[in-house]
Every structure is written in structure tokens, then in C-alpha cells.
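Renewal narrative, Specific Aim 1. Our central claim is that a sequence can be written position by position from structural information alone. The example that follows is taken directly from our test logs and has not been curated for this report. It begins with the C-alpha cells describing the chain, in the order in which they were read.
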């Protein structure tokens, strides 16, 4: 396989990715220059959790009102899941703490799949996945708000994944948040939602006719899942084609009905079949339907997996598309300005002034209904923030990292990424930042390797790009054989960055010496932006002082295909030899082997006769493996699995046939996998055989159905969680810990080296 590659260029806003091929650079005595701006410590992106929720499944529209009696509802914690209905309501009372007086408070909520949040009976926000909205510009200490959430799920298990508040005291950051909120409305200025849908789970084509009796139909909100095990359902609404879209005239250009379903749909207008479609329909209605015309829209949704439903329906005006494009550009500029203001202790006044100008400019657009005037104003705002790029060259903001890689007894690798090319340096020392390793080549992905260190020794360090430094932190070189240590394992964190960070928040206080992810760290490995959003940012407070490792998953191969090089993976990790995709290392008295069952096209397997298989056998036969007190193996797809969602899955037959006999022959202790979004634990043979652990609850939506009874699996749970393993000599303690900090499964074992004597 390959190590990191050179010359890869992919866009994120405008980002040039420069080769991270690295030579070991010499360390010299130095001090951090006085003109380097030093970032403050990283903070959790989740804010402060809001607790004491009560929940009840089903539709309860009166629950949004402050005086509603929920005393009979069930008390639940954040992370509560439900199944059996598409909707669940959550309620609590939130009192502003004394410490937040005068600050702007933002409410942040995550729901699998979508939600509407109400504060004191008024709608605060509607969102898919995750939403953030301003509760108050200036909080009053002791003020109590009634919060209600209508949580909706399109299929499988629904969950309230995040509920927190975030306080901002900085006026500039508040201005940016308000500006971004204003831009959010402009970014959707070309659409209006089609509401007032009703639903029926029976009947034929007559359901689409304009004058059919609908008194027994159910009123629903989108997104909606067809309830029960039914394979189809009917949706309909009476809709008047608007004269304007969000106040703007639009009908001199094409306009579209945009409808999204799971999985296939048929659209009827006034009883006439218009089009069959899969997933998404974009229907041009110009010269077919006129503003002011009332029509009956009906959609039949079919899905044989019994998970179908109507996701969304909007009218989209193409005339307002250029406004959306400019709003998108300004949003990206503001997000970069926000990062600079957050990371620089004394942000440039020119950027602060530009933020004020943009905030004022957006306010002046209130009530404007001329698209050309709005675009002209947005262009003025874009020009005001043009100096940003010059400041980013001086202070290259950290897009991800710094994060530790490849811990050794005499060395450590520090990596990070900046949004613009920059020089890199790491200052470090046992008692102070007295030494430096520098790389003066302009890069965005930085890899600094420090060598010549003492084993089992803590060092202070600071990563610096041009004139901006990340928070000072520490790292510890690999420990001696008999030193106790803790390591963490988690996986399948992709898609939901907030749920991922909620798992990381609980992991950090356990202070793992190393942390290993069993894969699917991003939704699609070829998507550059997902690596930061879904993996690096949620875990940056862990990765800055804890070396991390990945057993590559199938989703990392998304956009590349099995057996091919996963270029972003190569860019962003620095694993031990022989390559980033499969490798091994010894830490303390334990041996860690990471495999890649996606190394070749086809079934998940490590096939006999391949380079990886031959390497694996050499590891099993090595003295390092034989002499290890504990032997751990990591790869993504499990040999045994009892659970899944939306269809049958029981693990990988090729891995059961080809690898499980080797795990038993070479007396591996624990086999860690992911892929299934749950926790599963089993041992086979009992006693003395390897433990098989699935830890796929790192953040992605959980599975919900047990399909198979394996004698190799004795326990399963649908929980967001991580694994905490403590090694102390010949004793191992294993804990599965959910994101509320509760240990829900555990076992202990003694080293086979001891028991076999």
C-alpha cells in the first residue's frame, strides 16, 4: 500500500492542499517569538447541557404551551431514543444561571431526524439533524423559559441527541452569529415550504382526486414516516401558488416544485398523474400553474423496506438563485472571520469593523423585495471583508488539530491543518518551550516529527503556523512495559458531529493514553469538508494531547472504492509502519494490530496470498506479539453481528471463515470492530476464547433491530458509547460507557501469559 501522497489539490472555499510528505527535521534550541498570537484553550462545541426533560411519544400539539401539564410524562435524559412512532415530544424548564446574565444565549438541539423547538410557546427554530437559534440577546439571570421539542424520525429509532445552551459575551461574535442567522434566511430566500399535509395509509388513485373525502385523514408535519409496517402511503395538500416568494416577484423565470421522498413517489396535481420519481423530484411549473391558482397536490410514496415517507416539499424560484449564491459566499467569508476572531486573542480591527458593516448591511435589507438591490448590497458586504485573506496569511487559522499521531518511546508526531498555506513549527520541552522543529515549506497539512525524546516522559508543546499558535498542550512518549495505562476505543462517529462530540466529552475525563477508532469516521472519505466537521473538530480537545489511530472503514472509501488509495486519509493520518491502512505497534505490555478488510475490491476480507495477509501472519509469529501480555486486533467490519437496521445483517462470512480461526489459534484477547451502529459483546469459545466487541456507537444514527442469535454474542445494546480499557500488569478491566457517563457493561480478564504458565 501507500504512504501519504504528494500534489493533491482539492477545494474547500479556496484551499490548496500541499504534500505532507515529511523529512525528519532537526530540533534546535529556541523560544516562541514574542509576536506570535497564542490561542486560548479549546472549548466544547456542545455548550452546557440542558437537563430534566420529560417525554411522550405521539402527537401532542398543546405541549408547546408553557402551562401544559406534563407531570404524567416520562423523565428522560439527553440521548433518549424512541421507536414505534414517527413523533415524540420533549419538554423542560430552563432557568438562566447567574453567570450568564447579560450574555446572548443560543439554544442548540439535535434530533434524529428533525425537530421543531418552541420557547414559551413560540417557535424558535425548525431543523434537520441539528439546529441553533438565539434565545435572547441579553439573558436575565433567574428567568425561566419553557422549552418544548417536537422531534420527528423518518425511520428506525429516533433520538434527542443534543440539548444545550451556548453563551456569548463577545459583541463581535454575537454580531457574527446574528449575521449568519440573517444569511441563513437569504440562503433559503428562493424557497417556500409547502405545508398543511394530510396522510392516509390506504386507498388507491382516488386519493389524488380533488374532491375525495378526507375527514378521516391524519394531519402531519414534514418530514414524516409512514407508520407501522406499511409499504406505501398517500400525502396530499391544498396549495395556492404564491404571488411572491418571500416577498419577491419570481414568475418571470422558471419555478419548481421540489419534492423529496423515501424511496419512490408519484406526484399528482388535481388528480392527474404528473410524474413518477425516485428520492427527489424537480418539476418546472412555469406556464403550467399560475400564481394565485389553487391546486391539490398528492404524493404516493412507496418503500418495500417499510421506512418510506415524505421528507420535504418546497416551491423554488430560480430567479432568486443568484441571491442564494452571494449569500453562500458571504457566509463562508464570515465563518472564516469568526474563526480568526475566536482564535486570535486580539483580532485585527479591520476585520471587526467589517463584521459590524456586514451586520448593519444585513439589517438594512429587512423588507427589501428587489433582488437586484439585495445582490448589490451583498456585493458591497463581500468587498468589505476582502482584507480577511491578507490577515489569514499572517495568522493562518487552524482548521483541524493539532492532533498527536504515532506515539513512540523516543518520538511523537504532531499534525494539523491550516486553511491557507503556511510555515509550521512545534516548540516543546520538558520544563518549558525550549526547543523547536520547523518546516518552512508553505503547506496546509502539517506534519512535524520530533525525535530523540526520553521514554515515558511528558513534554509541553505548542504548534505554530506563521504568527498564530494553537493552545499549549502536552504529550507523553510511549510508556515502559510494566507501566499501567488506559486506552479508549470508539467508532462509527460519522454524520452527526454533535453526537460524536458528546461521546468525546465523556471520554476525556478518563485520560486515555491512546485512543483507537474502528472506522467510518466520515460519511464519505472523498468529501474534504467532512474530515474536519465529522472527525477532527469534535475530538480536538482529546486529540491535542492523546495520540489517535484509525482502523479504516468502508465509508472512508466512499468516492474512491475498495482497494484504491483514500487520499484524504493518507493526507490526514500518520500511522506506524508498514502503511496508514494496516499496521501494528506495541504500547506498554500490549500488542495492537490494525487490519484493513477493504484492501481489495469485493467482499470484506484479508485474503490468503495477499501482501496484507502475509504481513499479518508475520505479526502473529513475531516475538513482540508472543511476548505481549494482551493482544488486541482492530478492523471495521465484524465477523459476528446480531443487529442492524432496514434489513438483515449478521457479520462478514469471509472474516469468520478466514480470520476467526487465526484469532483463536494465536490466542488474541479482544477483537474490536464497528460497522454495526450499536454495542455488542461476546466471547467464543467460552471460556478462554477471544472477546468480540462491536463499538459502533460513536455518533452515527443507531441501529435498532436484532436479526440474528449468535452463540458468539452474549449481549447487545443500542447506545452511543465508547470503550475504556485499563491495563495494570497482567490484569485487564473493560468498561462500555454511554454518553451520560454510565458504565452499562464490563468484564475483567487476566493475561494468557500468566494463566498459561
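The sequence written for that structure reads:
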Amino acid at each position: 500500500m501507500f504512504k501519504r501522497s504528494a500534489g493533491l489539490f482539492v477545494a474547500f472555499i479556496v484551499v490548496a492542499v500541499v504534500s505532507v510528505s515529511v523529512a525528519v527535521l532537526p530540533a534546535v534550541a529556541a523560544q516562541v517569538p514574542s509576536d506570535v498570537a497564542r490561542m486560548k484553550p479549546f472549548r466544547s462545541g456542545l455548550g452546557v447541557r440542558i437537563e430534566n426533560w420529560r417525554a411522550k411519544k405521539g402527537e401532542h400539539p398543546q405541549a408547546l404551551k408553557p402551562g401544559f401539564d406534563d407531570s404524567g410524562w416520562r423523565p428522560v435524559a439527553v440521548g433518549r431514543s424512541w421507536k414505534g412512532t414517527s413523533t415524540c415530544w420533549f419538554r423542560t424548564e430552563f432557568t438562566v444561571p447567574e453567570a450568564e446574565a447579560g450574555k446572548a444565549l443560543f439554544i442548540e438541539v439535535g434530533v434524529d431526524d428533525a425537530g421543531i423547538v418552541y420557547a414559551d410557546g413560540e417557535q424558535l427554530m425548525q431543523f434537520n439533524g441539528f439546529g441553533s437559534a438565539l434565545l435572547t440577546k441579553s439573558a436575565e439571570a433567574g428567568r425561566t423559559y419553557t422549552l418544548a421539542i417536537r422531534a420527528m424520525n423518518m425511520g428506525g429509532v429516533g433520538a434527542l441527541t443534543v440539548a444545550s445552551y451556548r453563551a456569548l459575551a463577545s459583541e463581535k461574535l454575537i454580531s457574527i452569529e446574528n449575521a449568519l442567522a440573517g444569511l441563513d434566511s437569504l440562503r433559503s430566500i428562493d424557497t417556500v415550504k409547502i405545508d398543511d399535509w394530510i396522510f392516509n395509509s390506504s386507498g388507491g388513485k382516488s386519493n389524488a382526486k380533488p374532491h375525495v373525502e378526507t375527514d378521516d385523514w391524519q394531519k402531519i408535519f414534514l418530514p414524516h414516516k409512514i407508520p407501522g409496517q406499511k409499504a406505501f402511503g398517500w400525502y396530499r395538500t391544498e396549495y395556492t401558488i404564491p404571488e411572491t416568494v418571500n416577498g419577491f416577484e419570481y414568475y418571470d423565470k422558471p419555478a419548481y416544485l421540489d419534492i423529496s421522498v423515501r424511496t419512490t413517489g408519484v406526484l399528482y396535481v388535481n388528480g392527474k398523474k404528473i410524474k413518477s420519481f425516485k428520492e427527489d423530484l424537480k418539476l418546472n411549473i412555469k406556464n403550467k400553474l399560475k400564481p394565485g391558482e389553487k391546486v391539490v397536490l398528492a404524493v404516493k410514496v412507496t418503500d418495500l423496506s417499510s421506512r418510506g415517507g415524505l421528507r420535504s416539499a418546497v416551491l423554488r424560484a430560480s430567479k432568486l438563485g443568484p441571491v442564494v449564491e452571494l449569500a453562500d459566499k458571504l457566509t463562508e467569508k464570515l465563518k472564516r472571520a469568526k474563526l480568526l476572531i475566536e482564535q486570535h486573542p486580539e483580532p485585527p480591527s479591520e476585520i471587526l469593523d467589517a463584521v459590524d458593516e456586514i451586520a448593519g448591511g444585513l439589517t438594512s435589507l429587512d423588507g427589501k423585495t428587489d433582488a437586484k438591490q439585495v445582490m448589490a448590497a451583498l456585493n458591497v458586504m463581500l468587498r468589505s471583508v476582502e482584507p480577511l485573506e491578507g490577515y489569514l496569511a499572517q495568522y493562518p487559522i487552524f482548521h483541524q488539530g493539532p492532533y498527536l499521531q504515532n506515539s513512540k518511546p523516543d518520538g511523537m508526531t504532531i499534525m494539523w491543518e491550516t486553511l491557507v498555506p503556511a510555515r509550521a513549527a512545534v516548540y516543546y520541552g520538558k520544563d518549558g518551550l525550549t526547543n523547536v522543529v520547523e518546516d518552512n515549506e508553505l503547506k496546509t497539512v502539517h506534519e512535524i516529527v520530533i525525535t530523540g525524546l526520553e521514554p515515558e516522559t511528558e513534554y509541553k508543546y505548542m504548534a505554530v503556523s506563521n504568527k498564530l499558535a494553537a493552545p499549549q498542550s502536552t504529550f507523553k512518549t510511549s510508556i515502559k512495559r510494566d507501566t499501567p495505562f488506559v486506552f479508549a476505543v470508539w467508532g462509527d462517529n460519522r454524520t452527526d458531529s454533535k453526537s460524536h462530540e458528546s461521546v468525546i466529552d465523556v471520554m476525556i475525563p478518563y485520560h486515555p493514553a491512546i485512543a483507537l477508532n474502528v472506522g467510518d469516521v466520515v460519511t464519505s472519505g472523498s468529501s474534504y469538508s467532512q474530515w474536519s466537521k465529522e472527525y477532527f473538530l469534535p475530538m480536538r480537545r482529546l486529540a491535542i494531547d492523546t495520540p489517535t489511530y484509525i482502523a479504516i472503514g468502508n465509508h472512508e472509501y466512499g468516492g474512491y472504492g475498495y482497494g484504491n488509495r483514500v487520499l484524504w486519509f493518507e493526507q490526514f493520518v500518520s500511522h506506524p509502519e508498514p502503511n496508514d491502512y494496516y499496521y501494528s505497534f506495541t504500547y506498554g505490555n500490549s500488542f495492537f494490530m490494525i487490519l484493513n478488510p477493504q484492501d481489495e475490491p469485493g467482499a470484506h476480507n484479508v485474503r490468503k496470498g495477499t501482501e496484507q495477509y502475509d504481513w499479518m501472519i508475520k505479526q502473529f509469529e513475531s516475538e513482540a506479539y508472543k511476548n505481549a501480555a494482551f493482544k488486541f486486533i482492530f478492523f471495521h467490519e465484524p465477523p459476528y453481528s446480531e443487529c442492524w437496521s432496514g434489513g438483515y445483517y449478521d457479520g462478514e462470512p469471509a472474516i469468520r471463515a478466514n480470520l476467526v480461526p487465526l484469532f483463536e489459534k494465536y490466542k488474541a484477547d479482544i477483537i474490536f470492530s464497528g460497522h454495526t451502529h450499536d454495542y455488542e459483546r461476546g466471547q467464543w469459545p467460552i471460556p478462554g476464547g477471544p472477546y468480540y466487541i462491536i463499538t459502533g456507537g460513536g455518533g452515527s444514527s443507531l441501529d435498532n433491530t436484532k436479526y440474528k442469535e449468535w452463540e458468539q454474542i452474549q449481549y447487545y445494546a443500542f447506545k452511543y458509547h465508547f470503550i475504556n480499557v485499563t491495563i495494570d500488569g497482567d490484569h485487564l478491566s473493560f468498561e462500555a460507557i454511554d454518553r451520560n457517563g454510565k458504565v452499562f457493561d464490563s468484564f475483567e480478564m487476566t493475561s494468557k501469559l500468566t494463566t498459561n504458565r
